[in-house]
Amino acid sequence: MRIDILTLFPEMFSGLNASIIKRAVEKQFAAIKIHDFRLFSNDKNKRVDDYSYGGGAGMIISVQPIIDCLRSIKNFQQARKILTTPVGKVYNQNKAQTLSKEKHLIIVCGHYEGIDARIYQYIDETISIGDYILTGGEIAASVIVDSVVRLIPGVLGNEDSNLIESFDDMLLEFPQYTRPQKFEGLEVPEILISGDHEKVRQYRRFKSLERTYHNRYDLLLKANLTPEDYRFLEKIKRGEDF
Ligand code: ADE
After folding, report:
1. How many CB atoms are closer than 10 A to CB 56?
2. Cα Rg for the chain, rounded, in angstroms?
3. Ligand 1 atom closest to 132 (CA)
4. End-to-end Cα spacing for the chain
């Protein structure tokens, strides 16, 4: 997958040069290129923003440098073009999966008060990563790249990568433990070292339900629940443990 990112702050993407995403790039599952669209400004001082028509305090980014930068990218017409903005559609795992099947993504990062609205004529969709305001779209773009690249087949080494997470009809993951068995008096739950696989399965299911019940009730409402799950949920509602 090719990914081009258009930004005024290229230095904000150093975070993509680490861990799994770095390895994905090295193994050529993804080629990520960062473009500083200020370099495309026609203004003699390389300014990219100006006052808002109709008035208002904030500065608006002009479309010209962005569009000229976009046109410098090979085959930009065929790419899926995204704008990160707090007024976009809210991102989720299903969107990440859809995007992971694309051959070429171009992500435009807004900043300051926003971009001249004519930008919408040149992009395919807008994405917000959540209901909060960031200083710019760069962190949102990093979130998209990270979540999409890990879904490209082959990027995650282990077999779990085949289990595509849908999240929407899923429970939250159960808590897990590793050695030591006892840390500052805190012990690993006994069931997990019992060797009783059926008990371990039930325990983990219970803990998944419990966590989802407390942290993401919205997911619980969409989940496919079994009669056993409903029994567990009755206990969870009463505040009882497994
Ligand atoms: N830019 C500023 N806030 C944002 C958000 N929540 N999502 C995407 N881009 C943004």
Report:
1. 10
2. 23
3. 6
4. 45
Specify the pLDDT at position 83: 98
By DSSP bridging, strand 182-183 and strand 186-187 are antiparallel
Q: Which two tokens stand for residue 237?
A: 């509602």
Dihedral over Cα of 38, 39, 41, 47: its sign:
positive
Domain positions in the chain are 2-149, 164-237
In the CATH hierarchy, which top-level class contains the domain 2-149?
alpha beta
For ligand 1, say whether the CB of 142 is within 6 Å of any of its atoms: no
CA 156 – CA 136 distance, rounded (Å): 29
Read off the pLDDT of each residue in 155-160 and give the average, rounded to a whole number. Answer: 73
Token readout for 157 is 């080494």
Report which ligand 1 atom has the smallest distance to the Cα of 135: 2
Q: With CA atoms as reference, report the closest residue to 95 among 142, 144, 134.
A: 144
Q: Which whole-number Å values give the CA distances from 118 to 109, 122, 126, 241, in the listed order?
A: 15, 8, 13, 56
Check pocket membership of 111 for ligand 1, CB cut-off 6 A: no
Tell me the average pLDDT across 68-92.
97
Q: Is the CB of 128 under 6 A from ligand 1?
A: yes
pLDDT at position 113 is 83
pLDDT tens readout for residues 161-171? 546 566 777 89
Ligand 1 pocket member 140 (CB < 6 A) = yes
Six token digits for residue 75: 């085959």
Q: Give the mean pLDDT of 124-135.
A: 97
Domain covering 164-237 in this structure, CATH number: 1.10.1270.20
Within its chain, how far is the Cα of 166 from the centroid? 13
Alpha helices in 106-215 (DSSP H): 138-149, 197-215
